[in-house]
């Protein structure tokens, strides 16, 4: 039997981490859309993504989660939020140029 690729993790902790990232990302997107509709101004999600990354790191430290654990955890969520913030900032700068 062939070994499964490492990125296909089906343990409950990884599923919860992916669900949390999707839930928080969906909330941030909905909030930015609402603010854009109400104010008719472009809104960047960068500050909210950075704050989500910091809060997630706080949770990881307070729960003593291991960095680079076998399953996805809050450290991976923090990296995902920081990466999304960097991507959003790059898009904003590219559109302004």
Give a quick precis of the structure.
Helix content is 70%, strand content 0%. It contains three helices and no strands.
> Which structural category fits the helices and strands?
mainly alpha
Low-pLDDT segments: none
Mean pLDDT: 87
User: N-to-C SSE series?
Assistant: HHH
The helix content, as a percent range, equals over 70%
By DSSP, the count of extended strands is 0
What is the count of helical runs? 3
Ends apart, CA distance between termini: 52 Å
How much of the sequence is in beta strands? under 5%
CA-atom Rg in angstroms = 16 Å
The coarse silhouette is: elongated
The biggest beta sheet reads: none
What oligomeric state do the depicted chains represent? Answer: single chain
Describe the fold and architecture.
70% of the residues lie in helices and 0% in strands. It has 97 residues and is mostly helical. The mean pLDDT is 87.
């Amino acid at each position: 039997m062939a070994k499964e690729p490492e990125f296909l993790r089906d343990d409950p902790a990884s599923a919860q981490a992916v669900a949390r990232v999707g839930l928080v990302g969906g909330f941030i997107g909905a909030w930015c859309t609402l603010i854009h509709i109400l104010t008719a101004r472009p809104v960047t999600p960068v500050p909210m993504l950075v704050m989500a990354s910091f809060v997630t790191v706080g949770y990881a430290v307070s729960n003593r989660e291991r960095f680079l654990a076998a399953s996805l955890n809050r450290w991976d969520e923090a990296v995902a939020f920081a990466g999304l913030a960097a991507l959003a900032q790059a898009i904003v700068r590219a559109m302004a140029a």
